[in-house]
Amino acid sequence: MDIAITRDGSKVSDTTPTGLRRSLGVTDAVMIGLGAMIGAGIFAALAPAARSAGSWLLVGLAVAAVVAYCNATSSARLAARYPASGGTYVYGRERLGEFWGYLAGWCFVVGKTASCAAMALTVGTYAWPAHAHAVAVGAVVAVTAVNYRGVQKSALLNRVIVAIVLAVLAAVVVAACTSESAEFARLELGSEVTVFGVLQAAGLLFFAFAGYARIATLGEEVRDPARTIPRAIPLALAITLVVYAFVVVAAVVVLGPQGLARASAPLTEVVRVAGAGWLEPVVRVGAVVAALGSLLALILGVSRTTLAMARDRHLPHGLAAVHPRFAVPHRAEVTVGVIVAVAAATADIRAAIGFSSFGVLLYYAVANAAAWTLTSSEGRPPRWVPVIGLLGCAVLACTLPAISVLAGAGVVVLGIVIYAVRRGGAQSLRR
């Protein structure tokens, strides 16, 4: 058994009783969060968000950031209290009851599986548009193979991906700010913009933020989780917000709200208009790398929540197995990989994003409700944090396209029915 020495000199095991290995420090955890957040969302979400909010796009970004901050703070406090794989599935179960934990886990697994498919399709669309679905399936297979070899290898690869994506986004911002040949757009506050439009933009941009929970779902693989997780989550979120703010300002200044709304590939259009067309292939490569980084972190998170639910027999118990050599939930990872590959081969990327957003917002709503029940001695966040987080999740979920809301609600109802049938069957057996 591996032994680690804490700062106070006491000895603790680096391997949890369930077989997972605590190998991630603050930097690794932050990088995993950045890899999940600074991904393909910023490459894809700007145009539809601009169509909704126009020149008020930065206001939409601010709203999304506030909701994300509240969710991140609630998640961090809960993760420090319950450093176990599963994230809000565990928090909801422990603080609100078995049903709410199950509902959070169901929404996360279903919603983030759709996110995985969307990220895989983003890889295919940018890398080889004519064969996007085939490339997407290949990306899922490759990422699943990396995750199977162990979380530390995933963390190392994630560092490289984050560095590349940050460099590409920095190049876009610099090209926009230093160009002498670009005809910069004049900002106009359009009167047609509505509060609903700004909130809808916030909901779309929230998709680009949702990723910090990946740190919490790896709670059993983080060293000193009570200190590491509360530090890593806000730090990753703050870095992401700063990066996004610079990118949004650059895009709006160069293209204008209307030009940004019409752009199919917004950031490649920014460098073209800014007179740095040579950067276009670099930005496309950056989008592919960003999507791979998101896919890597997403599959990590979904497989760990699947592991936690399988332990409690809400999912097949065989998925709770941990590989004796690589110390990862290998059956859960392979199962998630197969399902994502099928979705990536058949789904539409826009439908996947909308469906995912609905499930993720419900997941964070449960996290905020659970954080509200924490006491002062348990590290409770300020009372306004979970309140704003919960209300924000509910409001943003309602601004999503009707088809996404209806499909998401249908899947949630299906999950509730499965829970009721399983619980009813268990009670019958006990009698």
The residue-averaged pLDDT reads 83
Work out the helix count.
17
Mind describing the biggest β-sheet? Answer: 2 strands, antiparallel
Q: What is the string of helix and strand elements?
A: EEHHHHHHHHHHHHHHHHH
What is the number of strand segments? 2
End-to-end Cα distance, whole Å, is 42 Å
Q: Which ranges are low-confidence, i.e. pLDDT below 50, for 5 or more consecutive residues?
A: 1-13
Q: What fraction of the residues are assigned to beta strands by DSSP? A: under 5%
Shape: globular
Overall structural class, as computed from helix and strand content, comes to mainly alpha
Q: How much helicity do the residues have?
A: over 70%
Radius of gyration, in angstroms, nearest whole number: 21 Å
Order of strands, main sheet, comes to 1-2
Q: What oligomeric state do the depicted chains represent?
A: single chain
